[in-house]
């Protein structure tokens, strides 16, 4: 298993805050400028306010500035922070407060109402349906899809003593952990941004946690990683590591801007995975994992998984076919239909 940190026991986590502070300050200035400047921005980016969400918004802004001269002018692009339901309610598991759309609903409303021009999302937060009057034509190049294991006392999940508590807000992670390591305990309401989760870990609330490696890379925080789980050990969430950018369906100018940023290989992979998820009608109450990638022959390899939350029952399948949109959509749907049939009635309502 690949390891990014040589030491197994850390005296403390080296959490970088300067970059986040800078993002927060820049974002605050951007919002302030929107209300105080007479000059109207050419493009307003809507985003959540977490350090990771801001990092993704600034990545989008920088790519737009590099691709379009008019957007490189000072004040041409502004960042608008929008607080979502998922950000407001942190005391309950995601499954108990609605699941789908918790981190996108308010941003989508701002887009439809014309308060922003484009919306930047983590694709794994985006429901399989899109609101009317919006399209999502752009995915940025995908980051590493794997999950990172972080602990102060163990090198991997296998090294954790029986009874150790692993913190996660993901039923997908919980079910796969318990399937392989039934002697471990999982705290499933381990919510908050990356910094909050690392603080809880350092305070001893849990003995380990899993976080998306993509987010840690975008935050320049990989020094906190103890080890990285392979795809075989932990199949990722649908669309993990992918950034999606939406605009209004009647806004040709924004669609043109986004077309210049789209990474087609990522878009096709995400489309395949989301077709699988849509067929399963998955929610935060159902542990579902799916990953589409290009294999050494240039074809699409799709792997899908559904599980019971306790990890006792795990069903997996895979497909190989041409790396082309229609074929990949068909693979995702077909894999979903197979697992629905194998799971049987009642499996997804537990």
Structural features, described:
With 350 residues, the protein is of the alpha/beta class. The chain has 3 domains: 39-140 and 242-262, D-Maltodextrin-Binding Protein, domain 2 (3-Layer(aba) Sandwich), CATH 3.40.190; 147-228, D-Maltodextrin-Binding Protein, domain 2 (3-Layer(aba) Sandwich), CATH 3.40.190; 268-343, Double Stranded RNA Binding Domain (2-Layer Sandwich). The chain is 33% helix and 19% strand. The chain is built from 10 helices and 13 strands. It has a 5-stranded mixed beta sheet with strand order 2-1-3-10-4, sandwiched between helices. It has a 5-stranded mixed beta sheet with strand order 7-6-8-5-9, sandwiched between helices. A hairpin with a 5-residue loop joins strand 11 (288-294) and strand 12 (300-307). The longest helix is centred in the N-terminal third of the chain and has 19 residues, at 18-36. The protein is globular, with a radius of gyration of 20 Å. Residues 1-30 and 32-38 have low confidence and may be disordered.
């Amino acid at each position: 298993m690949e390891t990014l940190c040589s030491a197994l026991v850390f005296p403390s986590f080296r959490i970088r805050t300067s970059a986040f502070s800078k993002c927060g300050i820049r974002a605050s200035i951007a919002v302030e400028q929107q209300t105080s400047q007479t000059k109207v921005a050419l493009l307003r980016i809507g985003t959540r306010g977490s350090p990771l969400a801001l990092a993704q918004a600034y990545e989008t802004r920088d790519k737009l500035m590099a691709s379009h001269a008019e957007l490189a002018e000072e004040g041409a692009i502004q960042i608008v922070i929008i607080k979502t339901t998922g950000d407001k309610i942190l005391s309950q598991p995601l499954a108990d407060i609605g699941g789908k759309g918790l981190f996108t609903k308010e941003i989508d409303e701002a887009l439809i109402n014309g308060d922003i021009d484009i919306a930047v999302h983590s694709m794994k937060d985006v429901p399989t349906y899109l609101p009317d009057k919006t399209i999502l034509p752009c995915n940025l190049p995908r980051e590493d899809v794997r999950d990172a294991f972080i602990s102060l006392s163990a090198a991997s999940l296998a090294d954790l003593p029986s009874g150790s508590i692993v913190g996660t807000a993901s039923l997908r992670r919980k079910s796969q952990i318990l399937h392989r390591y039934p002697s471990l305990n999982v705290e499933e309401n381990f919510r908050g941004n990356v910094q909050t989760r690392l603080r809880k870990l350092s305070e001893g609330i849990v003995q380990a946690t899993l976080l998306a490696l993509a987010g840690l890379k975008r935050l320049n925080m990989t020094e906190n990683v103890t080890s990285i789980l392979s795809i075989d050990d932990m199949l990722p969430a649908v669309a993990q590591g992918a950034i999606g950018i939406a605009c209004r369906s009647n806004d040709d100018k924004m669609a043109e801007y986004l077309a210049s940023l789209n990474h087609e290989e990522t878009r096709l992979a995400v489309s395949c995975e989301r077709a699988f998820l849509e067929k399963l009608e998955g929610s935060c109450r159902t542990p579902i994992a799916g990953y589409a990638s290009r294999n050494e022959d240039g074809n699409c390899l799709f792997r899908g998984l559904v599980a019971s939350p306790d990890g006792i029952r795990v069903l997996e399948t895979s497909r190989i076919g041409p790396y082309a949109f229609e074929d990949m959509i068909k693979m995702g749907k077909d894999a979903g239909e197979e697992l629905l049939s194998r799971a049987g009635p009642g499996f997804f309502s537990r």
